[in-house]
């Protein structure tokens, strides 16, 4: 903890271990922190079966579960992660989420996770959001390594990672159980020095 003195009687304490979710913009998108006001979107989004096809999350069934999900995985002000809502700039429609988790300050590393409502698949939106967050991670958070894990059956996500110069490092056999069977997990990474070499493809 550090303190910042405003005057003799007024001191604000700032927790330097907390990572705040930024507000980021691309040509088509705004990425920003969520609040409880967005819980109905969470219920709609994570209540859709296809949103959870390649994750171990259970499909949300009611508003109470959505509120619990918000406090467990979304609420800002955490030490090891932040999650942002992906919003269309033209009409402020909420269409997905993206963020860093498993943030390790000592190792300067973090893992990206993302999801998008099915209506907006195959429009380049996930690629645009991932580019934006990777740039933020390397430029503003001073990350050295960014990881992504993906189900090998999730061909769309793996195509995005390969197009953005992420390299496959390995595959964990039958790591997670969902959709009534065990699934492998592939691990991809991008190092800061390698991102520097391909920054031209990271323009947003």
Molecular structure report:
This protein is 25% helix and 36% strand. The chain is an alpha+beta fold and 204 residues long. The chain has one domain: Aminopeptidase (3-Layer(aba) Sandwich), CATH 3.40.630.30. The chain has an 8-stranded mixed sheet with strand order 3-4-5-6-7-8-10-9. Residues 1-16 have low confidence and may be disordered.
Shape: globular
Alpha-carbon distance between the termini?
Answer: 35 Å
Succession of helices and strands: EEEEHHEEEHEHEEH
* Neighbour order of strands in the largest sheet: 3-4-5-6-7-8-10-9
The H-level CATH homologous superfamily, spelled out, is Gcn5-related N-acetyltransferase (GNAT)
The DSSP helix count reads 5
CATH topology label: Aminopeptidase
**Gyration radius, in Å:** 18 Å
How many domains comprise the coordinates? 1
**% residues in beta strands:** 35-45%
CATH hierarchy, class: Alpha Beta
- By CATH, the architecture is named 3-Layer(aba) Sandwich
Low-confidence regions? 1-16
Helical/strand content category: alpha+beta
Q: How would you characterize the largest beta sheet?
A: 8 strands, mixed
DSSP helix fraction: 25-40%
- On the 0-100 scale, what is the average pLDDT? 89
DSSP strand tally: 10
